[in-house]
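We both want to read discrete structure tokens more fluently, so let's practise on a single case. Once you have written the record down, we can walk along the chain together.
***
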Amino acid sequence: MDIEVTSWNPFTGCTKISPACKNCYAEELSIKLNSWGTAGYENKFRFTIHHDRLEKAAPLKRKKPTLYFINNMSDTFHEEADDHSIDEIMGIARDAHWHNFYTLTKRSSRMKEYFESRAVPDNVWLGVTVENAKYGLLRLRDLQEIQASHKQICCEPLLDDFVDIDLAGIDLVVAGGESGKKARRADISWVESLRRQCERQDVHFYWKSWGSYDQEGNFKPSGRTGSLINGKEYKSFPSDLMPRDG
């Protein structure tokens, strides 16, 4: 079963800090949206706080239980994000208790510091990007030290073989290959290793897709590489991730 996600972007734009950022889809899309005259992208990919989106608080107006990806076009814990604006985001998420919210950061130390003096809303799923061992495992340890009801990591793009990854306290691992003309290949051995470790540690494993390289390593510009791993689909996620009516 595929996860349907609605985005909510009170922040847009970001800056690159690790290998996962190299071919950032959000940067490319932001530039396109700017060229099309789309409201909110006047600054292209420069970090911007949209106070009007916080004031309007779209999630509070949507009554159908929904899974929201907070700031999929930015990073909630960006260096230029002030604590007050992050407080507003978390306050809206807390008030909109019938939704679930998913947030992902590459700035785990800032997130850890922020929540040292604040409680994580029960309906917020905290996540970090874990693309390789050098950068990702530090973020994973920061996440594990935060007191939160739900935690997940995103290994997309998967750029490394995690030989021995400690997933203590993690509910979900989302992973996938990279897409685009300059995509880097996710090796099948890395994928299988990560999947087996999730299985051993009783963690949900959700493989999104192979991206521009298929399982055999063939480059396909169309990106039609599918999501099967050795003929099987692995799209497991916690049942309480998706909010339900009633």
The helical segments are 25-35, 51-56, 58-61, 83-95, 108-114, 133-144, 188-200.
